[in-house]
Design goal:
Number of domains: 1
Helix content: 25-40%
Number of helices: 7
Radius of gyration: 17 Å
Distance between the termini: 29 Å
CATH architecture: 3-Layer(aba) Sandwich
Strand content: 15-25%
Order of helices and strands: EEHHEEEHHEEHEHEH
Shape: globular
């Protein structure tokens, strides 16, 4: 199922996991500045525009878990579905040292239109998909850049993010570390933003959840995406079974 705002894969799959990719693409709809935010193609291919490799991992992971997936179909620079609706960073004007020309002078009416046409439909579809599943477990897939401008290199291969509900995150983190990977505990980001996607679709409903961040140089191609999906799927399944949730 596809829409301008989202794509759903395997809605009828029987698995309990709902695999979500909030930053799946760098696409700018043609009604937003003619499909161009004023950035070069090189900048639109950077992490500032989307989570590199995360969509491929999401697709493979959902298949291996025999579970549905939802993916965004718009760049987070247009509007960020992993932010609360009143978060000032929902439409970034400056990101990792790069000014976003198409957002720099965007007014409230433009912001509201992007929310109405993209953000709301994405979250409505996400909520509907979860509501039609029996005891869904949310698995959000993201990726992070190995190094932000002017910052130290990030050593983690995987980051496990969580908020107050760490019922799955803690055993999953331990299981990943047991593989010998360098795993961040709420790194490279804090695990809770009020109104973010996990908050909306997991925490507010008491649903078990885990957010996985993968360093994007490890999943930049299909081989890496497949490899990490194949590594993570059995660990997710085992941890969920052992948790009794």
């Amino acid at each position: 199922m596809t829409d301008d705002a989202f794509e759903i894969i395997g809605a009828d799959r029987p698995g309990r996991w709902l695999v979500a990719c909030d930053h799946a693409t760098n696409h700018v709809p043609d009604w937003v500045h003619g499909g161009d935010l004023g950035l070069s193609p090189a900048d639109m291919d950077r992490h500032i525009a989307y989570d590199i490799g995360a969509a491929g991992v999401t697709r493979h992971l959902a298949t291996l878990l025999d579970s549905p997936a939802i993916l965004s179909r718009f760049s987070r620079l247009v509007v960020d579905p992993n932010r609360g609706e009143d978060d000032p960073t929902i439409m970034m004007r400056l990101y990792d040292g790069t000014i976003i020309p198409g957002n720099r002078h965007a007014d409230e009416a433009e912001r509201a239109e992007r929310i109405r046409r993209l953000y709301h439909p994405y979250h409505a579809a996400y909520a509907d998909l979860a509501a039609h599943m029996q005891n869904p477990v949310i698995c959000a897939v993201h990726s992070f850049t190995p190094r932000l401008q002017g910052r130290h290199p990030r050593p983690w291969e995987v980051g496990i993010l969580y908020a107050d509900d760490d019922r799955l995150a803690q055993p999953f983190l331990a299981a990943c570390r047991a593989q010998g990977w360098c795993v961040g505990d709420n790194e490279p980001y804090a695990g809770h933003l009020p109104g973010d996607a996990v908050d909306r679709h997991a925490l507010q409903h008491g649903r078990p959840n885990v957010l996985i961040e993968l360093r994007h140089d490890l999943i930049a191609d299909t081989a890496g995406q497949t490899l990490w999906a194949e590594r993570l799927a059995p660990i997710l399944s085992d941890v969920l079974t052992q948790s009794g949730l």
